[in-house]
Amino acid sequence: MASNFWIKTLPILAFALFAFFFQATLGEITCEHLDEDACAYAVSSVAKRCVLEKHVKKSGEEEYTCGTSEIEADKIKNWIETDQCIKSCGLDRKSFGISSDSLLESGFTKMLCSPQCYKSCPNVIDLYFNLAAGEGVFLPKLCEAQRANTRRGMTEIRSSSLAAPGPASTGVKFLGVAPAMPPF
């Protein structure tokens, strides 16, 4: 009887100890403690996005620091994006902020919507999903149009056919519909 208890309990205990030591090894991510090579596209342990900031000293020398933004990641925390995702998605770790204008660049959108990025880099997709949504664009539709025809996809986003109409153009009042969730 006692040996049966240990046979069932030992794997659970081993997993719990592994998880504890694994978390202790990784620690919690604080944006201000990251160097410039890990900052961009990282998310702190409290789900705040990290941003690379450039400061110019009085001497004219540039200094880079990592700071915490007020923007929260939806379902991701304690995350430093991999170099493979940065490359697959066409991003640059030395970037100082992102813009929805990049979604109009067919080369960037092609890389963002590629299977290597779209299906493997949930942090990047979450970030750009929210950025696109802020512009009234549904990222999965944009990527679908991108895969169908690059030129047509860019024409559609520019003509706002992928964008949701604003309340003034429809006369419909906001009904409290929940925002769409990223596709992962």
Short description:
By secondary structure, the chain is α+β, with helices and mostly antiparallel strands. It has helices at residues 2-26, 83-88, 106-112, 115-118, 122-134, 139-148, 150-158, 167-170; strands spanning 42-43, 48-56, 62-72, 79-80.
Shape: globular
Query: Numbering strands along the chain, what is their spatial order in the largest sheet?
Result: 1-4
Tell me the span between the first and last alpha carbons.
Answer: 44 Å
The largest β sheet comes out as: 2 strands, antiparallel
Let me know the average pLDDT. 77
Q: Strand share of the residues?
A: 5-15%
Count every beta strand, where a strand is a DSSP E run of 2 or more residues: 4
What is the overall number of helices? 8
The low-pLDDT segments are 10-25, 164-179
Oligomer: single chain
- H/E element sequence: HEEEEHHHHHHH
Task: State Rg.
Answer: 21 Å
Q: Tell me the helix content.
A: 40-55%
SSE-based structural type? alpha+beta
Domain count: the total is 2
Structure description:
It is a single chain. The protein is an alpha+beta fold and 184 residues long. It has two domains: 28-80, no CATH class; 82-165, no CATH class. Helix content is 42%, strand content 13%. It has eight helices and four strands. The strands form two sheets. It has a two-stranded antiparallel ribbon. Strands 2-3 form a two-stranded antiparallel sheet. Strand 2 and strand 3 (62-72) form a beta hairpin. The chain is globular. Mean pLDDT is 77; it is low at 10-25 and 164-179. This is PAR1 protein.
